[in-house]
Amino acid sequence: MKLTVFQDYARSLSGDGKDVASDVFFELANAELIGYRVPNDSSSSNEDNAMVIIKQHSDAKTHTGGIVWETSYLLASFLSLKFGSNIGRNKVHGDREYSLGKTLEIGAGCGMLGLILATTKLSSRVVMTEAAEVMDILTENVDQNITKPPITNNDSDSDDDNRISSNEKGIYGTNHKSACPKECISVRRLRWDCLEEDVPAAAAVRSLTQENDLQPNSFDTIVGTDVVFCPSLVCPLLETIKLMARKKEAESTKATRIYLCLQIRCADSHSLLFSEAPKYGLEVVDVTEELAAFCPWAVELECLLLKINVKEDTAKQSRKRKKASKEKKSKKTPSKEKKSKKKDKKSSKRRKRDLL
Q: 259, 107 in Cβ contact below 8 A?
């Protein structure tokens, strides 16, 4: 299978117009194997050999998760440029600062974005989720890209090929070795309209040594690409984000960072996302200008970047305002005890004057 590398095509995305960008991604969408070069902080290996490789299924007819869409490359590039400055600052794995923390990808498709975030160590862990019909494609791509421990056969009669470590074989038969740490990524079924079934199921299948990585309200970052395309799925999508996102509880607990990158494939769905979000305690903000500053070709392809903010509970905000108001009044108005002490001092002074 021929390998087509994104960065080799991306060189032509220099603001030469929409037609050029469209042609580039048409070529990429029709390639069987797509590669994305990732930074490699190991001085002992060739940097060009570190790559995420995805096998595409452009013939998939029942879903759209068979190919890597433009928005996956775009959001990966944006997040790498915006949050990647902390990567590799400390070479000790345990002390490394993972800029995006624990990350949930909704609608992961064939897996390019999530694998990039995990392989580049932008995220400490990526939980990639999809509907049942896309799971086989997603799981296959993740299995090919994760590093595996050496597997040896001690049987002296075995062929040499049987004693080759699985992680010595190239991804999909290429000469590129898998580079995504196994402990940094997982795949889970998550249907937005079946949360009450799929979330408990993820907890039930984990082993004793694994955490429940699909725990509600546990994610530092949520990402999704081209997930707004059907009016009937907009509210389930918002419900999913609400369930998995975390509110800011204190100064030490930050609210979940949420980014969606998409093209307007359905105008009604797009409008519905903005109008329905407040009902779920969410605020959708168009930050495409920020995206265009990093990746000018996003404008050529009419791609949008949406940032979703998790709003605090109205009741909690009201309590905070009341507390702040009381504290303000207490600073201005002396307490009863202080008033009483001042009154006693005045009385004492009067008595002294009378005695004199």
A: no
Pair of tokens at residue 219: 């994610």
Q: Which residues contact 27 (CB under 8 A, 6 or more apart)?
A: 4, 9
Q: Are strands 303-310 and 3-5 parallel, antiparallel or unpaired?
A: unpaired
Q: For residue range 188-236, what is the model confidence (pLDDT) as tens digits?
A: 999 999 999 999 988 877 655 567 899 999 999 999 999 999 999 999 9
Separation between Cα atoms, residue 25 and residue 262, nearest integer Å:
15
Give the pLDDT score at 344: 63
Q: Please, which residues have CB within 8 angstroms of residue 182's CB and are 6 or more apart in sequence? A: 146, 147, 148
- Can you tell me the distance from the alpha carbon of 318 to that of 336, in angstroms, rounded to the nearest whole number? 27
Closest listed residue to residue 106, CA positions, set 5, 276, 232, 243: 243
**pLDDT exceeds 90 at position 140:** yes
What b/e sequence results for 231-262 when a residue is b if at least 16 CB atoms lie within 10 Å of its CB, and e otherwise?
Answer: eebbbebbbbbbbbbbbeeeeeeeebbbbbbb
This prediction has a pTM of: 0.81
| Chain center to CA of 125 | 9
Q: Over the stretch 239-274, which tens digit does the pLDDT of each residue have? A: 999 999 999 876 768 899 999 999 999 999 999 999
Joined tokens for residue 186? 């997982």
CA-based max dimension of the chain: 118
Strands (E), the chain: 3-5, 33-37, 51-55, 101-106, 123-130, 185-189, 221-225, 257-263, 282-286, 303-310
Classify 189 as helix, strand or coil.
strand
Q: Hey, which bits of 210-313 come out as E strands?
A: 221-225, 257-263, 282-286, 303-310
Query: What residues contact residue 254 under an 8 Å CB cut-off, 6+ apart?
Result: 220, 246, 248
